[in-house]
Structure formats: C-alpha cells, structure tokens
Amino acid sequence: MSTNPSLPISRADVEAAAKAISGNIVRTPCLKSETLSAMTGAEVWLKFENLQFTAAYKERGALNKLLSLTPEERARGVIAASAGNHAQGLAYNAKRLGIPATIVMPRFTPIVKVQQTEGHGADVVLHGEKFEEAGEHALALAEKRGFVFVHPFDDPLVMAGQGTVGLEMLEAVPDLDTFIVPIGGGGLISGIATYAKAFNPKIDIIGVQAELYPSMHSLMSGKPAPCDGDTLAEGIAVKTPGMLTRQVVKALVEEILLVGERDLEHAVSLLLTIEKTVVEGAGAAGLAALLAHPRRFRGTRVGLVLCGGNIDTRLLANVLLRELARSGRLARLRIRLKDRPGQLFEVARIFDQQQVNILEVYHQRVFTSLPAKGLIAEIECETRDRDHLHRLIEALRAAAYDVQMVESG
C-alpha cells in the first residue's frame, strides 16, 4: 500500500481512505474549546469522534477495510475479535454493505455490548476468559470457515482509515502544532501521524496511555512494565501493540505520556460539565495528558481526539460523584455525638446555619468501638465548594463536635 517502503502506510493511503469512506461516516465537528483553552494555556481543538453512529472512530478503519474486499471475499464474510468499539464499527458497516460478520468476544463481555453488536446483525461467538483467547479463536474460525479476518489495528487499510481523523482535523485547523492521541494497539496514532507528518513535518505527535497499560510506552522506552488492572480507559487497555503500528510510532511519534486513573476520571468529568459531551475513558485520555502536563503544551495549538463515547452509565455516574467528592462539593462527615436528646437536631441546625444541604444521615449506636453511651453520625452533604465545606467543619468543631471527613477514592 505505502509508497514509502520503510513504513506500512503513506499520506496517499490516508487520502485514498478519506475518498473511499466519504459520505458513509459522520464528518464529526472539530471545535475550539474556549474554556479548556483558558484552563490549560493552550489553544485546544476537539475532534468529536464520539458522535459517530457507533460512538467511536473505529468505524473509519473498519469501513475502509470492508470496501477493499473483492466480491468473493465479501461473500465469504468477515470475522474479528473485539469486546468494544471495533466490534460495533465492523458489524454496523458490514450490515450496511451486506457482508456477513462474525465477532468473537470473551465470555466476560457485558451483555449490553453483546446485544449492541448482535443488533448490528453480527453473529456473536463468546469464547475464552481473556481477549487473547478470543483472538486466537477468531483466527482459527477464519481459517476453518474461510472468513476474512479484520484486525482492530494492525492492518494497513485499518490504519489508513483511522488516519482520516487527522486529515479532517488539519483541513479544519491547518496550523495545529500538536496532536495528542490515545494509544491502545496504535492504529489511530499511526494513521494520524502518517498524514500529519507528511502535511507538516514540524507537527508534534504525542501519544497517551493509561499508567496501568503502558505497552507501547514500554516498547519505545525499552523499559518493560506490567500491563494489568482495571482502568477507566478500557478502550486502550491493550497488552500487545501491533507490529505494523509500532514501526510508525517509533518513526513518527515524539513522546508517549502516561496518565493515572484520577487524571482520566477528571477529564471525563470535565468534558461532560464543560463541553456537555459524553466521552469514555480512552476518549478522554488526550485531555487527561494535557491537564497532567500543562507546561508541556502551554502556548501551543493542540488537537485532541475524543475517540469514543461508549461508557457504561453506572460507571459514568460513579466517576461524576467521585469528582464531586474530590472537589469538596460532595462530602461525608463522621461526627461523634453524646448520647443526649437533641444532639442530632443541634448538628442539623449548624448545617442549616451554614446553608449546607444534607443528602443522607447514617446514625450508628451498635456497630461501633465507642463506649455504650457514645454514638456516631455519618452525614452526606452537598456544598458549594471546598471552602464552603471547610467552613462547615470549622463551625461543627467550634460547637465542640469531633468531626472527621470520610475520604473518597
């Protein structure tokens, strides 16, 4: 595919992909965020790939691959191993093109993702406890039944398709200085870097990975590190990057930054509260890196890819509540009371005086290490900010109450 023998894809491949998929994917907005720009000191441009039909950029690469198939290959059908966005992107576009699709998913895959993939007309096969086992089974089925295997990232056509994100961003904002791109297997950053560096060799390409899954970072730094744990950025929790993608990353990516779970949670929350857009952990990784390394990007024009918006609603609710707790707007106070009539009333009166809203009260007499006449009240409350919370605590202590904050995670 590539005219450059040293790399798997070229700028021409990305441009060809853009022509091939044009009109069949959403040309998502690329908008400047005035608020995030003011917060970070950089000029921040956001590419809203969470607005694709399946809520992720993965449609681009999957469609580009499908459109390349011969009539004979289309009749045989395609197969992939995925528990996430690649599964839905491939299944959706295969259905539109009349191509039979089979998706192998690990047995632990949430039922909602199985149903969504089946809803796009794919035949779902549950196999293995880990993604690697699902991948091996998909390859075995491809050989046995003649399916065309569609890799989620380590395929030149898929990489070129993902690179159309960068092409569209540079058409919208030609003078971008930096791209900050999440890395899982490396398909997205490979496609973007290939096009962007050909467009302007001075553009910086910065990758981002979760601290719990620093697979590409480890390869590039030569410092092996474990990849394990429950990360909010499950979409980029890839233990083994692609063989093709690592070639592009090594040649074209300046740096790979690691972000922690709190950084990811904060970024997801900010995008919802500031931009009013729902983004999954992987999709918020670029903003997380920008917020964690503000000096690195201050004064530059930065492009961030919000690469997906598929986040479980309960998980999103948990993230938002934890952010409220960290900011001091939501708190749980443990207050030691004396066993006398009116004690809880007196405490509530102080909350009223401080104009703090009480959300929940837990009054404990039995399951405590305090003396028999001692008791604990835990009160969950809502304040305006951390200073407001501190004023409440000072007022309670001034009234001779022993107060402790129950810290959030």
TrEMBL record:
EC number: 4.3.1.19
Assigned keywords, A-Z: Lyase, Pyridoxal phosphate
Cofactor: pyridoxal 5'-phosphate
Reactions listed under catalytic activity: L-serine = pyruvate + NH4(+)
One Gene Ontology molecular-function label: pyridoxal phosphate binding
Gene3D superfamilies with a match to the protein in the record: 3.30.70.260, 3.40.50.1100
Record Pfam families: ACT, PALP
Domain (ACT): residue spans on this chain: 332-409
Single Gene Ontology BP annotation: L-threonine catabolic process
Family: Belongs to the serine/threonine dehydratase family.
Protein name: Threonine dehydratase
